Amino acid sequence: MLILGIETTCDETACAVVRDGKDILSNVVTSQIDLHNEYGGVVPELACRRHVDLFLPTLTKALNDAQVTLSQIDLIAVAYAPGLIGAVLIGLNAAKTLAVALQKPFVGVNHIEAHLYAALMTPAEFPSFPCLGVVLSGGHTALVKINQIGEYQLLGQTVDDAIGESFDKTAKILGLPYPGGPYIEKLAQQGQLGVYEFKAGKVKGHPLDFSFSGLKTQVLYAVKGQNEREAERILSEQQKCDLAASFQQTAFMDVVEKTLMAARQENCQTIVLGGGVTFNKHLRQLFKHHASELNILWPQGELSLDNAAMIAGLGYHVFLKKGEGDPLELEATSRVSFVR
Ligand code: KG4
Ligand code: ZN
Predict the structure, then answer these.
(1) Residues sharing a CB contact under 8 Å with residue 34, sequence separation 6 or more, in sequence order
(2) pTM of the predicted model, to two decimals?
(3) Of the candidates 63, 12, 22, which has an alpha carbon nearest to the alpha carbon of residue 309?
(4) What is the pLDDT of residues 277-286, one digit of tens each?
(5) Largest Cα–Cα distance of the chain, in whole Å?
């Protein structure tokens, strides 16, 4: 079965062609970073307009790269939630239009579930379930028990900022461009741990939940002084590196510790990670070091970041499970609970 994947939930316009859920024939991601960079974050209205401009060229390239025509596509899979509502609507309506024109089924896919599926696309076999899913993206941070593909149980999530969001906000404090994650990772490589001491947030009564907004504020105080009463301190390059290193280490050790706690609690031997933050090499080293006894699955290369191959891949399983496509009434949703 040839599946066309469509992803427009935030600031990436993406189309991909995947065969039978795993075999990626093409994976085209057209970034809008240049557009949003000067605003220090994604401007929804601008993202929507750019999705409209970029959709057809992205679709055409995905079909050309895969050397298939639209008429050969058997199923259209689209991220229908969660995300910026206007942006999601553009991809969803494009998928519905193609479905009607081609008289082919379409299915809506949860973007966050797809981030976890990304790590399952590469190995020849799926791991034995249940395994523990860890979502680390710009919009979400969650620990989920994966009982089967399509069957999830939420164990913990962030009560405020998502981890990627806290990287982006910290980067902004340090005067770095958007999105900040890769810049923080780069600075942290030259930084020394222990110069700044930060603490990750704990959520009373919910040991598997996350809280990252306080961590970002600790960086802000270190830069500007308590309550911003002091004039902004002029940071040396080395101080910026040290701040980035301590921030990154604190955030990641919190993720590692809570992941290990959840894996023990749920008796999971395999950890499946997904989302843009999993692109970070230091995070991968920390897991290798602290969780060497567990089987750890990472998305390959660019599959960490927003892409449509993961949407097409998961869409295949969603379609098989439902036995039919979604109705044209399927609505775009900005927020969606992880548990179906
Ligand atoms: O999953 P994603 O592409 O989009 C969402 O669904 O949110 O994640 C984007 C997030 C951004 O916050 C970005 O700063 C972060 O992933 N990110 C990183 C790295 N690369 C991207 N964070 C830390 N280290 C990186 N190397
Ligand atoms: Zn994402």
Answers:
(1) none
(2) 0.94
(3) 22
(4) 999 999 999 9
(5) 64
CA of 17 to the centre of ligand 2 (A): 18
CA–CA distance, 122 with 27 (Å, rounded to integer): 14
For 331, other C-beta atoms within 10 Å of its C-beta total: 11
Any ligand 1 atom below 6 A from CB of 82? no
165, 277, 335: residue to mutate for ligand 1 pocket, most atoms within 8 A of CB: 277
- Ligand 1 pocket mutation pick from 37, 137, 176 by most atoms within 8 angstroms of CB: 137
Mean pLDDT of all residues in 206-216? 97
CA distances from 126 to 117, 123, 129, 201, 323 (A): 10, 7, 8, 34, 21
* CA angle at 174 for the pair 173 and 179, rounded to the nearest 5°: 80
**CA 161 – ligand 1 centroid, Å:** 13
Contact 140, 83 (CB under 8 A): no
329 Cα: distance to centroid of ligand 1 (angstroms): 32
Q: How far is CA 311 from the centre of its chain?
A: 12
Identify the bridge partners of residue 86 per DSSP, sorted by sequence position.
Answer: none
What's the one-letter identity of residue 269?
Answer: Q
- pLDDT tens for 43-54 read 899 999 999 999
What are the structural domains, with CATH classification, of the chain?
2-117+303-322 (3.30.420.40), 124-298 (3.30.420.40)
What DSSP designation does 278 have? G
Phi, psi of 106 (to 5 degrees): -130, 150
pLDDT tens digits along 238-264: 999 999 999 999 999 999 999 999 999
61: three-class secondary structure by DSSP: helix
